[in-house]
Amino acid sequence: MKNITEHQDNCPMLYILDPSKDITGAFIAAKNEAKLIQKDFNVVLVLPSVSKISDEDLTNFSKVLRLPIYDIRKSLSSILLYFPMLIISGWQLKQAMKRDHCKVLQVNDYYLMQGVVARLFGFKGKIVTWVRIDHRRYGSFFSKYWLKFDYWASDAVVAVSNFILSTLPESDKNILIYDPIVDDVPRFCENKKSDKKKIVYIGNYMEGKGQQHAIRVFISIAEKFPEAELHFYGGDLGLKKNKRFKAKLEKQAKEAFFTDRIYFHGFVKKTASVLHDAYMALNFSESESFSMTCLEASAAGVSVIATRSGGPEEIVVDGKTGYLVKKGDIEAMAEAMKKLLTDSVKNEIFGKSGILYVRQKFSFVSFGQNINELFSGDKK
After folding, report:
1. Kind plus residue range of the DSSP H or E element containing 281
2. Do residues 354 and 372 share a domain?
């Protein structure tokens, strides 16, 4: 266990069990949460031992514990290895919490069974399980059983959006808590007076995220809007299938006549660095349980065009802070982009409206209050 910051002597201990092997939306949510509640809790982050997240990104946590958390895959050898590793990591988690006199465990997504194992080994404290992804689309045979075990072991089950809440079985343990927009996200609501109109697409390069649709749409409108540029930002999480997908996107762009106006960038830790001069933001995903990228874009004062894919429908107000379009509807995507590229005044109004809307609905103050109530036992 590595000490990151000094403990607050009188604060209770909170363990957050997170699956992230690299910077992900779940990790960013845990990092933001730790920052917001660090005056009330000593937050310990539990990561897979193979996680590549650097110490620089872990400064919000009191400690970091790395355990042999193993992903299950579609092979017999993987399944055979998964269960003994689950027992080992679950036991180690329980023992660590015992040493730290920790009485609260947050499981940062439902498929992490180490919390269930810790309960089986006698952990008596509170367990709160977050559901951050659509369990129906996870693609694992074990998914429905994991969810059942979570309800047995957990004192509360938190959905990150109404969309996710609608997928869960009815239970008095269910709670809706939106991830917040942290207060240090800058506001960029001034009109973007530039010769270029930068369209940003923030999201890891992986199937289902919809970057290929953005390329198709951009190609269809690029001749009419010579000032427009399309910029992708994201990582591949070190996975071969994601690297193949990114290569496919790059090939798609190279085959277009407007390839010199389509750019591929790496992962960005601070979205403000790419949103400050953005004209609009896109998200054409097939499924989003929430969408931190849409939230941060709106909070920064950037109009958003997103698909009706779940979470974005609770962030983007259609016709007021951006546009919502049907999944895979290239014509609707193109029409929405043309409307905003043609009307810079409307685009600016959408951006300013987005700031007001998301900073009220996804307030970090409300989030902090909800977390304190939940972990203190006042909320059931």
Report:
1. strand 278-283
2. no
Structurally, the chain folds into a number of domains equal to 2
Q: What is the pLDDT of residue 192?
A: 55
- The strand pairing partners of 107, in sequence order, are 17, 129
pLDDT of 195: 77
Rounded Cα distance, 167 and 161, in Å: 10
| Collapsed DSSP state (helix, strand, coil) of residue 5 | coil
Give the tens place of pLDDT for each residue, 233-259: 999 988 899 999 999 999 999 988 888
- In DSSP terms, which residues pair with 223 in a beta bridge? none
Residues 172 and 206 in one domain: no
202/173 same-domain check: no
Structure tokens belonging to residue 282: 């896109």
**Location of structure tokens 């009419």:** 224
The confidence score (pLDDT) of residue 186 equals 67
Tell me the CATH number at 231.
Answer: 3.40.50.2000
Q: Are residues 171 and 205 in the same domain?
A: no
Whether the predicted pLDDT of 201 surpasses 60: yes
Helix (H, G, I), strand (E, B) or coil at 29: helix
What number of other Cβ atoms are within 10 A of residue 2's Cβ?
Answer: 11
Specify the pTM. 0.85
Residue 380, pLDDT > 60, answer no
Q: Which two tokens stand for residue 103?
A: 């009485």
Total length of the chain: 380
Q: Which two tokens stand for residue 186?
A: 């800058």
Q: Quickly count: other Cβ atoms within 10 Å of residue 29's Cβ.
A: 21
Enumerate the β-bridge partners of residue 46: 17, 65
Q: Which long-range contacts (CB under 8 A, 24 or more apart) does 33-38 make?
A: 33/367, 33/371, 34/60, 34/61, 35/60, 35/182, 36/180, 36/182, 36/364, 36/367, 36/368, 36/371, 37/368, 37/371, 37/372, 38/5, 38/8, 38/62
Q: Please name the amino acid found at residue 372.
A: N
The answer to whether 97 and 122 have CB atoms below 8 angstroms apart is no
SS3 44: strand
User: Do residues 168 and 205 share a domain?
Assistant: no
The whole-chain average pLDDT of the chain stands at: 90
Element (H, E) at 216: helix 211-221
pLDDT tens-digit readout, 125-155: 999 999 998 888 776 678 889 999 999 999 9
pLDDT at 144: 86
Residue 77, Cβ density class (10 Å: 0-12 exposed, 13-18 middle, ≥19 buried): exposed
Question: What does the pLDDT read at residue 257?
Answer: 80
